[in-house]
Design goal:
The chain has 330 residues and is an alpha+beta fold. Among the domains are: 113 residues, Bacterial muramidase (Helicase, Ruva Protein, domain 3, Orthogonal Bundle), CATH 1.10.8.350; 69 residues, Lysozyme, CATH 1.10.530.10. The chain has 15 helices and nine strands. The longest helix is centred in the N-terminal third of the chain and has 25 residues. It starts with a helix and ends with a helix. The N terminus is likely disordered.
């Protein structure tokens, strides 16, 4: 064994890495791979030879494993994360996009109750309005994470199965699908199961095309929020101030709000929204550039986290969309 390889092994053991030190073709003879093939054949009536052929042409990629280990919402403080998305350039790109798709977005709002700013925020954060949709083959991403990323292998292996089902249902070439390092597809960055469950035909052509049809894409994002119980004309979040009597232990470290407006007010939390006392709300503490920031979120903030399980993500998407609408109305 070379000294370099021995050093790598020692590093991996010391840091507790759960990912392989190599990258290359997937070994389809592995027990877990063969089990996946059998399950797809038995439960979904796929030809096992076809599944094996596709998997044999896939590759496990270290870059995907590295990216999965350091998502921005997990390693950056709020002020750095926000600065990625809330920029003059991205807001300007959003206003141009809004001008091009305004009629579609307003029609979708009438149909679903989901406002243009929320759809714009999601598309802007996820893909810079379609500019950045991912450079990985979806099969490679899901094979890598499904078979060589133990912390979430079951989830991504399930998404691999969903990708095969999606391709069959929508008459797509599963090996040609491109997406993010996590296997998310198109400008809205839907994972395969979300594509199957929430994508809609926005232009009435009988297809659900989340790669090329903006009408389908925008309608599908709205449908995602509508299904997850978006409340039309209701607030999302607001900056708040606190008093000395506010208990730091009362700050929410999860995603779902559990308190009420009256309880927050009694605890010395103040924010510029008039809501009924029994309205669901909660407060989050985030790291601002000049000190702590206090944010009150309502049920709609939680709905945004169903798209990406991060309060910072939800706030960034909402703030970007709001900024775009404000800029467009000037």
């Amino acid at each position: 064994m070379s000294a370099q390889l021995l050093c790598l092994i020692r590093i991996s053991l010391f840091t507790g890495l759960l990912v392989p030190l190599w990258a290359g073709a997937l070994n389809v003879e592995r027990k877990d791979v063969q089990q996946f093939i059998t399950e797809m054949a038995d439960s979904e009536q796929f030809d096992p030879d076809e599944i094996q052929a596709v998997l044999s042409r896939s590759t496990v990629q270290q870059s995907i494993l590295d990216a999965m280990s350091r998502p921005a919402e997990k390693v950056k403080p709020w002020y750095e994360y926000r600065a990625i998305f809330i920029t003059p350039e991205r807001i300007k790109a959003g206003t141009v996009f809004y001008a091009e798709h305004r009629d579609t977005l307003l029609r979708i709002e009438k149909e679903t109750g989901v406002p243009p700013e929320m759809i714009l925020g999601i598309i802007g954060v996820e893909s810079y309005f379609g500019r950045i949709t991912g450079k990985h083959r979806v099969v490679d991403a899901l094979v890598t994470l499904g078979f060589d990323y133990p912390p979430r292998a079951n989830f991504f292996r399930g998404q691999l199965g969903q990708a095969f089902l999606l391709a069959r249902e929508e008459n797509l070439d599963v090996e040609a699908l491109m997406g993010s390092y996590a296997g998310a597809i198109g400008p809205p960055q839907f994972i395969p199961s979300s594509y199957r469950n929430f994508a809609v035909d926005g232009n009435g052509d009988g297809q659900r095309d989340l790669m090329n049809s903006w009408e389908d894409i925008l309608a599908s994002v709205a449908n995602y929020f509508a299904v997850h119980k978006w409340q039309a004309k209701k607030p999302v979040a607001a900056r708040a101030t606190i008093t000395k009597k506010t208990d730091p232990l009362s700050f929410n470290d999860g995603l779902k709000p559990h308190s009420t407006v009256s309880k927050l007010s009694a605890a010395g939390v103040f924010f510029p929204f008039e809501q009924t006392n029994d309205a669901t709300a909660d407060i989050w503490l985030l790291e601002g550039e000049t000190g702590p920031e206090y944010w009150v979120g309502f049920d709609n903030l939680y709905v945004i986290t169903r798209y990406n399980h991060s309060i910072m993500y939800a706030l960034a998407a909402w703030e970007l969309g709001t900024a775009i609408i404000l800029e467009a109305d000037l």
